[in-house]
Write a structure and sequence with these properties.
Elements lengths: L1 H7 L27 H9 L4 H6 L5 H11 L11 H21 L11 H10 L15 E7 L3 E9 L1 H5 L2
Antiparallel strand pairs: 1-2
């Protein structure tokens, strides 16, 4: 929310912020709120969360699925696996496209968590290569195509950050 407020602070005309739970960060179930390295040690027997990603030991999708499995003893299991995350994110983007088309809007700003964005881009076939995480404050620009298809115009772009230095 804070990021969206900062981005829109200079917008003219003044634009409203619409919050939705569809853009929330992944739910880690009983591990929600844990320090990430403690989580990595407990669930994956790895020294750090970053080592899982940086050393290529696990993908974000494998982490999500393993986290969901590690929560199977919880009733209910509130953790999300990859399929659940992708379903939620697809639902959001389909709603955004439909609403923008109905209101004849050409541009929509979406501010969300980078992890789910990388997972979703990979799921729709965008070659994110070895990128497991986006840089903070980066921009990924999508173009909506017919039938809720998307083209990635920019990925993990920090050029405007560099211009602001």
């Amino acid at each position: 929310m804070k990021t969206a407020e900062l981005v829109l602070a200079s917008a003219t005309p003044n634009l409203a912020i619409n919050q939705t739970p569809l853009l929330r960060e992944e739910d880690y179930g009983k591990y929600e709120g844990w320090e990430t390295d403690a989580f990595a040690r407990d669930v994956f027997n790895l020294p750090t969360f970053r080592s899982a990603l940086d050393d290529g030991l696990m993908t974000l999708e494998e982490i999500a699925d393993a986290t969901y499995a590690a929560n199977m003893d919880e009733n209910p299991n509130t953790a999300e696996n990859t399929a659940m995350l992708m379903s939620r994110f697809n639902q959001f983007f389909n709603q955004v496209v439909d609403t923008a088309e109905a209101n004849q809007q050409q541009r929509v700003l979406v501010v969300t968590h980078g992890t789910i964005t990388v997972m979703w881009l990979r799921a729709i076939g965008y070659p994110v290569a070895d990128n497991q995480l986006l840089h903070n404050a980066s921009v990924t620009r999508l173009i909506s195509k017919p039938d809720h298809q998307f083209q990635v115009e920019r990925f993990d772009d920090l050029s405007y950050v560099e211009l602001g230095k």
